[in-house]
Amino acid sequence: MKRNILALCLSFPLLLAAQDYSTSVTYVSHTDDVLTVRSVGLSEKKKDAADHAVKSAFYTLLYRGVNGYNDNKPLVQHDNKYYVNKLLDSRYSMYVRSFSEVADTEREKSSRLYKAQVEVDILIKSLVKDLVFEKLMDPPLSEITMQDTKEEVGLPSITVVPYKTEDETYQSILQNDFDRRIAVARVQDGFNQLGATTIDFEARMEAMWRSQDFNAGVAESDERQLLQSTGADVYVTVDIKKDISQSEGSRVSLIMKAYETASGNILASRQDWTNRFYTSDLDQLCMYAVDSQLKGFLDDVALNFARTIKEGTSVVLRISQGAGSTTNLNSSVGGTGYVLSNAIRRWVRENAQDGRYHLQGIVAEEMIFDDVKIPSKDVDGLPMDAAQFGDNLLYYLNMDLKVPCEMKLDGRTIYIILK
Question: FRET label pair with 297: which of 82, 99, 137, 234, CA 20 to 30 Å apart?
């Protein structure tokens, strides 16, 4: 039987203590606007049991989380007792579309309390909007705008590179493939016009070739090093397809994929054909493609880059034994009873965002974390980056463990060398 929502505002004037709320809440379904759950409520008075079940649904959603919704996490991220008390006292009824009792209310023999079970439709989109407005909840990632990203962590710096196959090199493409060279130039210009900071890949590549600043090894290692050495947060690969027709008009398609440079994780991809134009000028056709595709693509990159606010920014951490060093990763350190590799792993776990990292491997001479999620801000609320994270680790090793070492930084790759 459906209940009158107005009755919710008039009943239960006294807010129950948090420990009196039931957390027996089960997910049923949800859309963008409405979340449906089943909830249990207990009360000394039979007439209040169903209302208490509805309040228990809100309490659980706010503070405990409901399995099957919001990754099973509670909605409240920054508590405000005054707001929550008002919400659970009466304002929650604003967010109830309807509810119905799914079983008869009966008195339990053990507790002598009346037990009600209800199915309630919660106007979840409106509730979340209010929680965000009152700053109890951060904006959902789907609602984070490019302006939010700029204010919170800044737009990522971007380097634009041509798409290449395994048997190609960046140098050969930029020297010999006019189509991809034009596409890269137009995409980079487009990012600049949208306010993104870009790093010229070709200039960086030529500088590295002049200085021969490459790892000795295979070309793949060289090119990975080249991408990381740009210092860009994101690299975007660009390929182009042409459909040239004098009778029907010509069109092009830009195939763009954005990757986080440090981890190689993909952030966004986009491919679409332009309309047809009566021109065969590739430069002009690429400009049409950039005008129609690039803003949406950058919005996708910004949205996924905004995940660093909650999930942390990826960096690579490499610790190695320097020439002439008598300390390696298997050495006991600091009177802790730990070998150095274990002490470093524990420090990384404690200082990474939510303890999230991936350890690629350890030998006595080297230890490689190929992905460490660092928080966007330090404990003082100041921006955290790879340089600061590396400096904090350096201080721990030098001062706390008394292990002499030095640090080098290459983009988002941190090198710690044991001296």
Answer: 137
Q: Among 79, 105, 138, which residue terminates a domain?
A: 138
Pairwise CA distance, residues 113 & 49, whole Å: 9
Residues 162 and 302 in one domain: yes
d(CA 150, CA 78): 22
Q: Per residue in 104-146, pLDDT tens?
A: 888 888 888 999 999 999 999 999 999 999 999 987 766 666 5
Specify the number of domains making up the chain.
3
Q: Which long-range contacts (CB under 8 A, 24 or more apart) does 151-154 make?
A: 152/306, 152/309, 152/376, 153/305, 153/306, 153/308, 153/309, 153/313, 153/376, 153/383
pTM: 0.56
Task: Please report where in the chains the tokens 């860009």 appear, as a residue.
Answer: 232
> Does residue 146 lie in a domain region?
no
CA distance 376 to 354: 12
Number of helices and strands (H, E) in the chain? Answer: 13, 14
